[in-house]
Amino acid sequence: MYNRYEDVDSSVITALSAIRRESFPELVNAKIKPLFDLKKRVSGGAIVLARIMLPNELIKHFTADEKEGIEDGYDYIVIVDKVVWQNTGATDRERLLRHELRHTFVDIEADNPYKLLDHDVSDFYEEMELNRDDPRWKERVASLADTIYDQMKDEAKSRGRGRKAPAHAGPTPIETYAEERAQGQEG
Q: The domain 1-187: what is its CATH number?
C-alpha cells in the first residue's frame, strides 16, 4: 500500500522547534504536526517545497492523542517535500520552515486562536532582509528539486521498459551538489 505522507525524522522536529523558539514565540503553545510529502506537488506550474495548513475537524479528531498531550488534535500541519529536505542544507531548511511559519497568526481573542494568513508586505520585507545573502534561494531549491525528480522519473522509466538501470558509476553531478549543499561546502 502506498502512502503519500510519512512522519518526519528528528532533523525536522529539531529545526522546527528551534525556529519556533527563536522567531515565533507566539506559537509556543501551538501543536504543529510536521509530515514529509513523498510525491512531487506542483501548484500554479511551480513545485511546492513545503506548505502549512489548518486541519479540519475530522483531521483534528484523528490526530487527537491524550497520551501525547494532543487532546484536541493539531493546530497546524506543516508538510515538507522529502526530496527537498534530504537535498538541502541547514540554512535552506531553516528558510523553508520559517517561510511556512510566517503564514501563521494567533488571535488570542478567538475560540480557535490559530489562523493562516497570505503573505503581506511586511513579511515580504522581513523575508528579504533575512535572505539578503541569497534572495533567490526558493528558485534555486525548486530547480534542484525539479532536477532530482526528473532524474528519478527517468530512472523509473528505464526500469519500467524492461531495461536494466545503468550500473551506478559513482555519484551524479546533482548528487554531488546536493551532498555539498547538505554539508555547507558548495563552491
A: 3.30.2010.10
